[in-house]
Give the backbone structure.
Amino acid sequence: MLTSKQRAYLRGLANNIDTIFQVGKSDIKDTLIKQTDDALEARELIKIRVLETSGMTAREAAEELAAATGAEVVAVIGSRMILYRESVKHKKIVL
């Protein structure tokens, strides 16, 4: 569980990263979960966008992806979400 200071720190780091995935009208499938899991292991902090054509809100998508990958939802801002999970092999971010 992240503290509010850790969330604020991670939000600040996320300002400098690009959105790497999009949740579209096919919503969340196994391939997106696998890609998200791999990206979290490699990067620890990722940003994902939910398109208007998706049947989910950004909050719903964030909660579902976080639950499926063991990640923490750092923030949901508009149509974007920020997810964090500490990497086992490639630890980059020190909280």
Q: What stands out?
A: The helical segments are 4-14, 30-43, 58-69. The domain at 4-84 is CATH 3.30.110.60 (Translation Initiation Factor IF3). The CA atoms of residues 44 and 93 lie 7 Å apart.
